[in-house]
Design a protein that fits this description.
The chain is an alpha/beta fold. The chain has one domain: Aldolase class I (TIM Barrel). 40% of the residues lie in helices and 15% in strands. The chain has ten helices and eight strands. An eight-stranded parallel barrel has the order 1-2-3-4-5-6-7-8, surrounded by five helices. α1 packs parallel to α2 and α5 crosses α7. The radius of gyration is 17 Å and the shape is globular. The protein starts with a strand and ends in a 5-residue tail after the last helix. The chain binds 1,3-dihydroxyacetonephosphate.
């Protein structure tokens, strides 16, 4: 049984004081009506400690949006996995399309990050997704299949359940135009089958999320999608009330 996972990706938003207010509100809301989903907030590095402290003693988790896969050293401006570990991060987003497009991250680097995160006991949330033109050419599955294989190639089949895959079509991110739940379910099924065949791994235990313009208005659809185990939320996660509503769509205790 895969526990649903609801992840906030704040991207480059929220100062540390703003994060503190937000987390107090989120904690209150989810204490009143606790969700069955596991809830994770991934703030910018500068607010990780604030979020961690605000969530102490609750089931809420803190994660990160990125790291550099070297243990330590002369990498000005970067943050290592052990630094995230020291702040109790349980999850780290890896290979987000914004990092691939704006910061030139390659599949090679992303594959390295997936491996280093797992070796350090932090669950990577690997983002994959196709562009609109790839979609129009009917290449969605081919593109996603290729991204998965290159980014997961360093793993042993038995390590697959330690990865979370987030299907985030690029055209759905921040556009107000989400994929359909049917698209998400089909892609999740395809990803499981492909990894099962090529890596002979236990893909039934691996969680697959959907991301891209998820809101409290459309969450019911995704929460009901077969084989889709949760969501990765950008814009709507910046509001604690909206994010709590999304988390509660997975059922309340
Ligand atoms: P939006 O929810 O703002 O579309 O962002 C999705 C996303 O990129 C989450 O990682």
């Amino acid at each position: 049984m895969r526990q649903p996972l609801v992840v906030a990706n704040w991207k480059m938003n929220m100062t540390s004081p703003e994060a503190k207010d937000y987390c107090q509100r989120l904690r209150e809301l989810l204490q009143e009506t606790p969700t069955l989903a596991e809830v994770v907030v991934c703030p910018p590095f500068t607010a990780i400690e604030t979020v961690r402290n605000a969530f102490l003693g609750s089931d809420l988790q803190v994660g990160a949006q990125n790291f550099y896969p070297a243990p330590k050293g002369a990498y000005t401006g970067e943050v290592s996995i052990s630094m995230l570990k020291a702040l109790d991060c349980r999850y780290v987003i890896v290979g987000h399309s914004e990092r691939r497009l704006r910061f030139g991250e390659t599949a090679e680097t992303i594959g390295e990050k997936v491996k280093v995160a797992i070796e350090n006991g932090i669950t990577p949330i690997l983002c994959v997704g196709e562009t609109m033109s790839e979609r129009s050419l009917g290449m969605t599955e081919k593109v996603i299949g290729q991204q998965l294989l290159t980014c997961l190639k360093h793993l042993q089949p038995e390590q697959l359940p330690q990865v979370v895959v987030a299907y985030e079509p690029l055209w759905a991110i921040g556009s107000g135009r989400s994929a359909t739940a049917k698209d998400a379910a089909q892609l999740a099924k395809y990803a499981r089958q492909r990894l099962q065949r090529l890596m002979n791994g236990n893909t039934e235990a691996m969680r697959i999320l959907y991301g891209g313009s998820v809101t409290p208005e459309n969450i019911q659809e995704f929460a009901a999608a077969e084989g889709v185990d949760g969501v990765l939320v950008g814009g709507a996660s910046l509001n604690a009330d909206k994010f709590a509503a999304i988390a509660r769509a997975y059922g309340v205790k």
